[in-house]
Automatic annotation (TrEMBL):
Protein name: Thioredoxin reductase
Organism: Penicillium frequentans
UniProt EC number: 1.8.1.9
Recorded superkingdom: Eukaryota
Pfam families membership: Pyr_redox_2
Keywords: Disulfide bond, FAD, Flavoprotein, NADP, Oxidoreductase, Redox-active center
Free-text remark on how the cofactor is bound: Binds 1 FAD per subunit.
Cofactor names: FAD
Subunit comment: Homodimer.
Amino acid sequence: MVHSKVVIIGSGPGAHTAAVYLARAELKPVLYEGMLANGTAAGGQLTTTTDVENFPGFPDGVGGAELMDKMRAQSARFGTEIITETISRLDLSEKPFKMWTEWSDGPNDAPARTADAVIIATGANARRLNLPGEEKYWQNGISACAVCDGAVPIFRNKPLYVIGGGDSAAEEAMFLAKYGSHVTVLVRRDKLRASNIMAERLLAHPKCTVRFNTVATEVIGDAKPNGLMSHLRVKDTVTGAEEIVDANGLFYAVGHDPASALVKGQIDLDEEQYIVTKPGTSYTSLEGVFACGDVQDKRYRQAITSAGSGCVAALDTEKYLSELGDVPQPKEKI
Ligand SMILES: Cc1cc2nc3c(=O)[nH]c(=O)nc-3n(C[C@H](O)[C@H](O)[C@H](O)COP(=O)(O)OP(=O)(O)OC[C@H]3O[C@@H](n4cnc5c(N)ncnc54)[C@H](O)[C@@H]3O)c2cc1C
């Protein structure tokens, strides 16, 4: 069993930003980047997208996977030990904290590593609906993030659809109305779950329509490889009637699943299973355990906000370790 001062679990912008700061502070961080943890490649959610156009420093945009490769290289450059394994069990009941990796996590297996401090940066996954055609047109018309993708040319002045009935769906629809010719929100039930104020704004928006009791049943489009979606089959849940509508964009706003199972029951989670952090910090309910990125952020969920919170987690961790007397002191000048 190996001991480290600090272990980072995760591999998105939050994890790598924390790693860069901690490595430069000579704390020798160890980062478990996961082996298809939660079904996502090491590098996190951005590995599932094409161009990222809103991450500062890349005026011409940057591929999501390329951006994460660069972040990983920067972590490694300063000495982060990156391990391509998934942490499958974590024991936070006593210090040092213990952790096990996949396939070696039975009751009789020794922990793979112990640590004085742990940063949870395991991210979240946008829920999908597994509609026929979804796999083919994912990122070729279908998106789970209007703020990320809404401005791209394929959606300009085109009919767009949003699925969902909550505040996020309302917010996304009104955001997309800046770009699309019209935005239709499909709501499975006969009412919106959104707050009254958001519902009122959405219903009054001149470029948005809400279709109640309606679900999408199939995404249809160009048959060519990387062809774009062009239509959506929708179904009235009351009458069962189906129709095919013009649709060049489909945005899911049906929620996210934060990857917090590892710490469930050990630190505080909110009702939607996001890790609760003390506002403005990365402190969780347990001393020595910090969280950053989408696993603790249900509001912004952007690469840059994850990176920012990774910096916060690193600085909070450094302070915590220095209070334990664990931070390397600057060498005396001769
Ligand atoms: C399709 C798509 C497009 C997007 N486009 C943009 C965009 O253009 N601009 C933007 O700012 N944001 C975009 N986002 C959002 C952005 O990707 C996220 O906000 C950001 O990646 C969250 O970073 P994170 O650090 O929380 O980690 P995540 O990116 O969520 O990654 C966490 C990763 O940690 C690893 N992990 C999880 N559990 C474990 C474990 N137990 N052990 C080891 N490793 C583990 C997994 O690989 C996991 O994917 C997009 C998201 C998606 C899905």
